[in-house]
Amino acid sequence: MRDVGEEEREARAALTRIVEPGDETVGRWLRQTTPVHLVQSLAGEREMPAGVSKKKFAGLRLRAARVDMSAGPAADLAAVAALGGRFVCPGDEEWPRQLDDLEDGRPIGLWVRGSANLRLWALRSVAVVGARACTEYGAHMAATLGSGLADRGWTVVSGAAYGVDGAAHRGALAAQGATIAVLACGVDYAYPRGHAELIGRLAEQGLVVAELPPGDHPTRSRFVLRNRVIAALTRGTVVVEAELRSGSLVTARRATELGRYMMGMPGPVTSGLSAGVHQLLRGEAVVVTDAAEVVELVGSIGDLAPARRGPIVARDLLDPVASRVLEAVPARGGADARRLAYDSGTAEEVAQGKLFELQSLGFVQRCGAVWELARASKGAAGSRRGGP
Predict the structure, then answer these.
(1) What is the CATH number of the domain that holds 250?
(2) In the prediction, which pLDDT does 84 show?
(3) pTM of the model
(4) Strand runs (DSSP E) across 170-278, as ranges?
């Protein structure tokens, strides 16, 4: 992997102030020319690249005119360094190469706060997203999922928003695990304001990542564009709660487009906050209910969730014939061996043998010629008779 020079790093840093995240037109230009040459063209120091739309280029030049090309990029790099951060570019050792799947829409670079290696943490990462105005159920499940993934050595990625995002981050932090917040603003800009403390903790114990330079603020479109980074950075996306119209669904569907796993955590069918998740589950999403099931899907061969079974009772261990004979014994009163053989569809001598076997196991007792349920079994007789 090549080393990114300081000139290119400053040029890419400048472009994050000029270009909106996910601008595929600029992404195509960067395949035709270098970031340094593109910045010089936008500053009027070079001719406009060939094949570039004049209208689009003129708009970007207006934005570039507000940027001090000589000092601005260096000041932004110094500002993020003062926060203990850095600016990671395509080509750097720390660059998560799965972001290249976004092709022309990949980030120009990422502003990062935190000491961990972004590429290494992102290799085993899962996005947990969902409603901002989530229910107590949604918050509980997101926090449990976050801590469960962290306990298994997986990085939890989300957007630091209210609701499901914040709960997932807190769950991972409580488990002393790895978690990454992808913001729709600068890494030094706490949004939402009510999560200023959480974002500070994420910068200390985890990572805070953004495409926008220090001090930049969020907009509605930037939240949507931020979601593509969450989807591309991770191996899969879990939606905990979401209405039918939700940015979380955009993230999940983008994950599918990028070849990642799309998962949904079901909720009550009467809850509008689970309606979007259930719609995903009617399509390509996979049902998950805990961290083990998520890891089974996105992890390596052998990362299997434990098998789920109901409680095993003594009756489950009986052979089919003994089980039929026991079913024939009346819940109240009793019956002789001939009647029990008839009711169970078994030969009388076979039924007689099974009754003695059931007696030794404590299921039935004998009163003269009549067999009845043992006292310990009578309490379960009602549920047995009403069951399938």
Answers:
(1) 3.40.50.450
(2) 93
(3) 0.82
(4) 179-183, 207-210, 236-239, 261-264
